[in-house]
Write a structure and sequence with these properties.
Layout: E1 14-17, E2 20-23, H1 24-41, H2 46-60, H3 73-92, H4 100-109, H5 117-135, H6 139-149, H7 154-161, H8 165-184
Antiparallel strand pairs: 1-2
Length: about 190
């Protein structure tokens, strides 16, 4: 028996919505133009948007796909259409292999991804030392150092923290001195 002859795939499907009960044809007529427009806004071409719209509406009459009632029918349609468009886009993309002449050029210009183990360890230790030193600062000093590191002026730092310019300058200078002492370690 054909699926089309099966009565559960009939277009006489009725949906319960907030506005009452609507049949498939009235929902299709009401939401089709909006759904196509939303897909075109996502960058899907018009022909593919029409195909996706039809596929999504066909999914609405497939009883095997319905696990729970849909509250926002247009929201469900839009989400389903967007997901289908993304899936189709990913399937359409193919990896393009570069010509062998470019591989040699890239090998010469790109650094070796296998980093020196000692360099990685030193960077990790330096980062750990910096975090330990920052944790010994007061909250205000940490904020001042971070804002100064972002390129903010003392006045912008003071305004952001709600303190005076003098306090912002003092907190920044104190924090820098503490960091220098911490990071240089004990004098021999």
């Amino acid at each position: 028996m054909s699926d089309l002859a099966n009565p559960i795939y009939s277009t006489q499907v009725v949906f319960d919505t907030e506005d009452g009960t609507l049949d498939f044809e009235s929902l299709y007529a009401a939401h089709r133009p909006k759904l196509i427009h939303s897909l075109i806004r996502l960058g899907v071409d018009a022909v593919e948007a029409e195909d996706i719209t039809q596929d999504v509406f066909l999914r609405t009459i497939d009883p095997a796909r319905h696990h729970a009632p849909v509250r926002n029918f247009f929201g469900w349609l839009t989400t389903s259409a967007k997901n289908l468009a993304i899936t189709l886009h990913h399937r359409g993309q193919r990896e393009v292999l570069a010509a062998p002449v470019y591989w040699k050029q890239w090998e010469d210009t790109l650094p070796d991804p296998a980093q020196d183990v000692l360099t990685s360890l030193e960077e990790w230790q330096r980062k750990d030392e910096m975090l330990r030193a920052l944790s010994k600062l007061t909250y205000r000093e940490q904020q001042c150092i971070l804002m100064r590191g972002q390129g903010k002026t003392f006045q912008e730092t003071a305004d952001s923290l709600g303190i005076t310019l003098r306090k912002a300058m003092y907190a920044s200078e104190t924090a820098l001195r503490k960091l220098q002492r911490e990071l240089q370690g004990p004098a021999l």
